[in-house]
Automatic annotation (TrEMBL):
Domain (Asn/Gln amidotransferase): residue spans on this chain: 302-449
Keywords carried by this UniProt record: ATP-binding, Ligase, Mitochondrion, Nucleotide-binding, Protein biosynthesis
Keyword presence, Cytoplasm: no
PANTHER family: GLUTAMYL-TRNA GLN AMIDOTRANSFERASE SUBUNIT B MITOCHONDRIAL AND PROKARYOTIC PET112-RELATED, GLUTAMYL-TRNA(GLN) AMIDOTRANSFERASE SUBUNIT B, MITOCHONDRIAL
Primary location: mitochondrion
GO CC annotation: glutamyl-tRNA(Gln) amidotransferase complex; mitochondrion
Gene Ontology biological process terms, A to Z: glutaminyl-tRNAGln biosynthesis via transamidation; mitochondrial translation
Protein name as catalogued: Glutamyl-tRNA(Gln) amidotransferase subunit B, mitochondrial
Substrates-to-products reaction catalysed: L-glutamyl-tRNA(Gln) + L-glutamine + ATP + H2O = L-glutaminyl-tRNA(Gln) + L-glutamate + ADP + phosphate + H(+)
GO MF annotation list: ATP binding; glutaminyl-tRNA synthase (glutamine-hydrolyzing) activity
Encoding gene, per UniProt annotation: GATB
EC number: 6.3.5.-
Similarity comment text for this entry: Belongs to the GatB/GatE family. GatB subfamily.
InterPro entries associated with the record: Asn/Gln-tRNA_amidoTrfase_suB/E (IPR017959), Asn/Gln-tRNA_Trfase_suB/E_cat (IPR006075), Asn/Gln_amidotransferase (IPR018027), Asn/Gln_tRNA_amidoTrase-B-like (IPR003789), GatB (IPR004413), GatB_Yqey_C_2 (IPR023168), Gln_synth/guanido_kin_cat_dom (IPR014746)
Amino acid sequence: MARSRFRGCASQQLVGVVGLEVHAQINSNTKLFSGSPVRFSAPPNSLVSFFDASLPGTLPMLNRRCVEAAVMTGLALNCTINKKSYFDRKHYFYADLPAGYQITQQRKPIAVDGVLTYSYFGEKKRSQMIRKSVQIKQIQLEQDSGKSLHDDDRSQTLIDLNRAEGQLRVDANVSVHRPGEPLGIRTEVKNINSIRYLARAIDYEIQRQIDAVQSGRAVQNETRAYDSKSGFMPEPNLPALIVYEDNASLPTGIDPSQAVVVQKIKDRLPELPGVKRDRLVQTYGILPEHSFTLVNEDGLMEYFETLMKTTQREPRKVIGWVTNELLGHLKQRDMSVSQSPISPAHLAELLKLQETGRISSSAAKQVFQEMWRSGGKTAWQIVQEQELGLVHDSAQLHSICQKVVDSHPDEVSALNSKKVLNKLIGLVQKETKGRADPVLVKEILQQMTQ
């Protein structure tokens, strides 16, 4: 299990200081210190090795995949990777830990001193993106305890040593102080399993402590953390954990496929969300808020970039179709991007018809709706079937414009007004069901009234 800690603060006379200890399960096929498989919702105690049950004489076997995952997490969070780290025993006595201790990394964990940079939009100006960063104190590998299952009907607590799989848990350490003064006494809120509840718990605890300090009451240290001086000792059954910077640093005789090599893991590190957003803004010139939408919706960024490879339209004109039309339809039907009946290639064809003046913008939206419903017809097929193409015939448009002008003499007398001209253009579009070339219609109307 990887664990990270970071701190941040608010800006008031009395400010809150928050340290989060985040417990996250590593995505691996077997457990951290045994060969027992990891499988969600398996029957209780069905995935328990002799070591998991703490039978005498059993020894831990470190899972290399978990070490690599911890190193990758450290790299993603800009941490320093310790080439040599150590395991410790954290002693406490509870039924969910039959050995009486938990294997963790207290003295020298695998990664330290990282920074997480994040972005958000200003409350008053949505287009203003604000960047902030929080410190990552450390990332450590830690054995998970068992899961306590409480049977209230029988007044019993049962233990599942499959381990507490599939959960993200957070412990929040909260204190308040005045800037420039020593940190206040902290309290710990444990085992929070929801981001929403975490925010509520922190807000509540900060306000509770501010009220206590302002009324002259003392804040009690209610943390249930263990004192490292008395609760920890070096783990005697595990040697130092060694990772290597690159293949050149491997000692003679070490099989590279069996070693944890930082450079190899760094090469596999995927493009991180912040890097993706910056690249989208710089490459396509789209707004920061659009980059957030593309990255946050699974598969939407890939859809947009595939579309951009097959269309000549400006990215800022394309992005609206992706984030408004496409995503809007997907959200209404609770569908994922991969389930979209309109492929990037088919949407590119529709955009080309609009860009080249074959259809109007309103007709393009009609075609999009029909493409969604038909689930296979191309944009051009729909345009032909429903006669949605723009009318470019000058003689035909001249006749329609003359009819509109003759039936609206009052408007024609005030045609120097842009508002009136737009009204006449709208009347022509109504006659043609939105198919008239707006540029040509404007020219004809202006010529008729000069």
